[in-house]
């Protein structure tokens, strides 16, 4: 049991630090210190810093998609309400005290060429979000669900960048209004 707790402790600290500071700026000494473990323990669990980053990304993706699916699919009412619920979840994320952008965008920025496996995980996460939006667009009765999913994902991704650039959670109001227009047009 203690091994699992230590591993989870390391993952939580690493996720927090990587989101806040990025990957290259976060050293193994800081990771171990923040997790309350030795570097040896960290390496015992993950093999390397890259191994830790890979596990953080996979864990982050799993938790993100579970929360998204759970909250959005449990939204009462129509398919378009479910699509718009995605925007409200992003508002909550942008409003959180620890919001510092998207860990997957950071991954692509820092590792796109030098660590293909990490970049693959980031791209895979973005693709999973696109597939989820496609499911919701079909549920909403969109005539071209792939096109609507791509448009909505573009709005969500752009809102991340603008929120991180200082526009704050209010930027989601603009994105959500545009989404409503796109959804209405796609249902015609």
From TrEMBL:
KW Transcription (keyword) present: yes
Superkingdom of origin: Bacteria
Segments of the chain annotated as binding DNA: 27-46
PROSITE patterns: HTH_TETR_2
UniProt KW keywords: DNA-binding, Transcription, Transcription regulation
InterPro entries reported in the protein's UniProt record: Homeodomain-like_sf, HTH_TetR, Tet_transcr_reg_TetR-rel_C_sf
Domain HTH tetR-type: 4-64
Name under which the protein is recorded: TetR/AcrR family transcriptional regulator
